[in-house]
Amino acid sequence: MIHICRRERFNAAHRVFVEGWSDEKNSEHFGACSNPNWHGHNYELFVTVKGEPDPLSGYVIDLKVLSKIIREKVINKVDHRNLNLEVDFMKGIQPSTENIAKAIFHEISPLIQKQKAVLHSIRLHETENNSVEYFGEFA
Amino acid sequence: MIHICRRERFNAAHRVFVEGWSDEKNSEHFGACSNPNWHGHNYELFVTVKGEPDPLSGYVIDLKVLSKIIREKVINKVDHRNLNLEVDFMKGIQPSTENIAKAIFHEISPLIQKQKAVLHSIRLHETENNSVEYFGEFA
Amino acid sequence: MIHICRRERFNAAHRVFVEGWSDEKNSEHFGACSNPNWHGHNYELFVTVKGEPDPLSGYVIDLKVLSKIIREKVINKVDHRNLNLEVDFMKGIQPSTENIAKAIFHEISPLIQKQKAVLHSIRLHETENNSVEYFGEFA
Amino acid sequence: MIHICRRERFNAAHRVFVEGWSDEKNSEHFGACSNPNWHGHNYELFVTVKGEPDPLSGYVIDLKVLSKIIREKVINKVDHRNLNLEVDFMKGIQPSTENIAKAIFHEISPLIQKQKAVLHSIRLHETENNSVEYFGEFA
Amino acid sequence: MIHICRRERFNAAHRVFVEGWSDEKNSEHFGACSNPNWHGHNYELFVTVKGEPDPLSGYVIDLKVLSKIIREKVINKVDHRNLNLEVDFMKGIQPSTENIAKAIFHEISPLIQKQKAVLHSIRLHETENNSVEYFGEFA
Amino acid sequence: MIHICRRERFNAAHRVFVEGWSDEKNSEHFGACSNPNWHGHNYELFVTVKGEPDPLSGYVIDLKVLSKIIREKVINKVDHRNLNLEVDFMKGIQPSTENIAKAIFHEISPLIQKQKAVLHSIRLHETENNSVEYFGEFA
């Protein structure tokens, strides 16, 4: 069993807040992250897939295929977008780094399985100091 | 003459667009960067100051003082903010990386001079691949 | 279950040596690391906490809270300090990177539990080439 | 149980291809990676060893010893070399990043055991976006 | 006057040697870098362009245009290639990092001028420790 | 004219203080940096040399030669040392980053000239946020 990891990047705006709360109450709970005028990040996304290397190529998964899956299902939907307003798989979900990572996991996991490999984890860096990693429901 | 450089960071939302143009025309000219719902970045800011080291401390400028100037005049105004809507020194200015760097230069240059040093340049990274550096009007 | 990781940094002096041994014997066993006049490092500390995201905020733990715990219990005690002489939780402990990581783990683990999360690991980088990770006694 | 990790680097040429296939067929399957005139990488190698810290030194393994093992058994054989043509432990093996990591694991695992520690994993970065990690047969 | 810098990357094989010298003589002069079986690198390329920001966009040069120039004139020719054998603008030139940077400068400088900007420098990193920067003939 | 840059690293202890002042007075002026029990850093040193590439090798200077000069004249004297107590070229000099960079410049400049190249600058990073660059007396 070998892990293979692909890094991709995207830039997006977001805001952490509870709908129905006043700006003041949101600010109290979430601080500057709830700014009603938005803020944004350069997100770094690390997708780790596991499996056995193919006898011929020595690849667990062709990185060009993995990169294509990530771009089509994730990057094209989130890059230069507003994570609260414009991303189908984030509709109705609080865009904390934790929740974005979970949503991305479930978005691409079925497509990895079609490649006869297993999605091990989604690691997402919001800043150089803050990151999360999600391993799926049964991890 | 020695250069001393301090790195600070901020996260912000922005949009590159021309007011009065339709979203379509802005999109044609500026692509995804003009998304009306905003996007954002983790900006890295490098402030370079030059001068002679103080005979006692060996410092061109005390980095605690330099950091305080940058935080008060820049970071506190731009971090977790919308660069188009909320930053006094960016009012009416297209928030390209070039223009943000220029505005920051003029914002802090007078305060560096009060410290008996000279602001050499503002380098600003928008992503790991894109950066600008501004050296002032007479460079 | 999601992992969330916070990076903090500190600069400290230390020396790896056995009290009671001569400088020569220490030098034989530990090389330059036992220099009686000390040396030092820019340590990078990665604190990983695990738990379920809060339904409202989507946070496993508020990173401002996590950062405050790390600063109060660790950074304020070790930054710009001598790890052999000045740090309460390192008293009588050989300041190898391994032992510093273990001591930090036990220092902050109870405070993470009070936040209804679990400390997963302490990763500590001494240089860009050398790091350790500690997962607790029962890992 | 503590993990300790040492980074080493090497630069090498390689080509991913199947002997007996035409250049065209290799190109179809492996793209630019099968260029018959070779291409190359700056590989980053992370060797993670686990064990209990020694009571006296606080070390799981002396990093000078670990670094010497990696240099003698790996770096000296692969640095500035052609991975398809010149490396004894890669003879007859497709030099995918996965297979290089596996081969390095088996090359140094016995020597780590002689140091009373256990090789936990080999992580190998081919580019800043692509990496693999291998944990041994029984992981 | 503002500098704007774009980073691109490529992986290539090369060999530093003098044609007509024996392998032994080349090895004496150039060490492992002259390995007749090639070695390779992940090159990092930083292209710095200078000019005045456009009043409307605030751009010195559109980074999508700059990136396209670099990809068409450089990356497509060198990525996954052998720098001694396969690159038109390196024919007959010793592929030292210095000479590659010079050749890239002259390759793209005319195209930058057509964009009403000036190519300031080409910085090329061969490894994380070694880099060169070329500023043109009249710098 | 081409610039070539070599990065080297060292770990050292130091303290910024004025001899003859009380610990209290030093602490008031220099803060935690004057801790009488020392603190330390992982310094990153960038040595930039300029000249014309040799027609045969394409090298401005052989990086093995440059690295050897830096190691013999600098790294061997400062690595795992106390910059206030143990380094000949820092005797009687306040070990601010500025002053260390200046001293290193004058230490290696004559040896670069013997290689028919010119030392352009010494850049020294004390932390990931703080760095200085010195260009010599006549820059």
Offer a quick outline of the entry.
In chain A, 30% of the residues lie in helices and 29% in strands.
Task: Outline the structure in words.
The structure is a homohexamer of 139-residue chains. Chain A has 139 residues and is an alpha+beta fold. Chain A has a single domain, classed as Tetrahydropterin Synthase, Chain A, CATH 3.30.479.10. Helix content of chain A is 30%, strand content 29%. The first copy, chain A, has a 5-stranded mixed sheet. In chain A, a hairpin with a 4-residue loop joins β4 (118-125) and β5. In chain A, α2 crosses α3 (97-114). Chain A is elongated and about 60 Å long. The mean pLDDT of chain A is 97. Chains in contact: A-B, A-C, A-D, B-E, B-F, C-D, C-F, D-E, E-F. The A-B interface holds A 9, 11-14, 31-33, 35, 37-42, 79-82, 85-86, 127-128 and B 9, 11-14, 31-33, 35, 37-42, 79-82, 85-86, 127-128. β1 of chain B pairs antiparallel with β5 (130-134) of chain F, so a sheet runs across the interface.
The biggest beta sheet of chain A reads: 5 strands, mixed
Distance between the termini of chain A: 16 Å
* Subunit arrangement of the protein: homohexamer
Strand content of chain A: 25-35%
In the CATH classification, which architecture of chain A applies?
2-Layer Sandwich
- Which chain pair shows the most residues in contact? A-B, 23 and 23 residues
Radius of gyration of chain A: 17 Å
Average pLDDT level of chain A: 97
The class by helix and strand makeup of chain A works out as alpha+beta
Q: What percentage of residues of chain A falls in helices of 4 or more residues?
A: 25-40%
- Which regions of chain A are unreliable across 5 or more consecutive residues at pLDDT < 50? none
Tell me the name of the CATH class of chain A.
Alpha Beta
In the CATH hierarchy, what is the superfamily of chain A?
Answer: 6-pyruvoyl tetrahydropterin synthase/QueD
CATH topology of chain A, by name, is Tetrahydropterin Synthase, Chain A
Total count of helical runs of at least 4 residues of chain A: 3
